[in-house]
Amino acid sequence: MRIATWNINSVRTRAHRAVDLLAKHDIDVLCLQETKVTDEKFPREPFEEAGYHVTCHGLNQWNGVAIVSKDEPEEVQTFFPGQPGFHKDPAKEQKREARAVSARIRGVEIWSLYIPNGREITDPHYDYKLQFLYALARYVETRAQSKLLLTGDFNIAPRDEDVWDISLFRGKTHVTEPERAAFQMLEEAGLEEVTRRFTEKERWTYFDYKSLRFQKNEGMRIDFQLASEPLARLIQGAQVDLVERAGDKTSDHVPLIADFDVPDFASVR
């Protein structure tokens, strides 16, 4: 089973690029983040015409996640237990945002996640980011013995080598010790970052639009696929699609693709 994750940065703008990506790599499951569209306005038709099912969760023009799959999804969830909400005014209702969606496909519980950015260390969004990750780790603890996969934009660079120049990031979000500790909690809960060992040469999954970051190869590794042990042992390889990032009017993120030895149920019946 070939699974890809991609922060598409507006699915209505780039639906055709996503469909082309599916065909180019023969992808079985594509997890999308930052779709920036309500469920009613999600551009389902191009995906369905290509033979895919669409599972999406979008509440407004911000955030938004989706899972596009060849197999019909089962047991869809649009939040995980304990997932916190957010409003910049603490006196207001802290409503849950469209940052998580999951589906069971070929016996694997697959999540498309858009972890909060954090904005600034002094911003309430930073605390929200940490609370989101803590709650996610607690959920993982209850599911780590099954085939579980967390994919998406984690907005964390877990190691210094996951940014092109750590000296430019110190004191900023994405590389702080609390964020990295929260990421480590996911691993301690029973997950493995399965794509890293296959993507050391072409490691970046994000390049800022500004300052010619892509052209200078000044990127960040902040998109991941984290698998539970029963699934991690089935990993066969992984790659990033830098060609997609080099395209015209593409996302600032790079598709991250992994192959797992999970059979097509239809082929073994």
Automatic annotation (TrEMBL):
Record carries keyword Mitochondrion: no
Broadest EC class assigned to this enzyme: hydrolase
Signal peptide range: none
Marked site: Important for catalytic activity: D223
Domain of life where this protein originates: Bacteria
Record site feature (Transition state stabilizer), residues: N155
GO molecular function: DNA binding; double-stranded DNA 3'-5' DNA exonuclease activity; endonuclease activity; metal ion binding
Keyword terms of this UniProt record: Hydrolase, Magnesium, Manganese, Metal-binding
Required co-factors: Mn(2+); Mg(2+)
GO BP: DNA repair
EC number: 3.1.11.2
Site (Interaction with DNA substrate): H253
Protein name per UniProt: Exodeoxyribonuclease III
CC cofactor note: Probably binds two magnesium or manganese ions per subunit.
Keyword Nucleotide-binding set for record: no
Species this protein is from: Corynebacterium minutissimum
Family statement: Belongs to the DNA repair enzymes AP/ExoA family.
Positions contributing to Mg(2+) binding: N7, E34, D153, N155, D252, H253
Endonuclease/exonuclease/phosphatase domain span: 4-253
Record-annotated active site: Y114, D153, H253
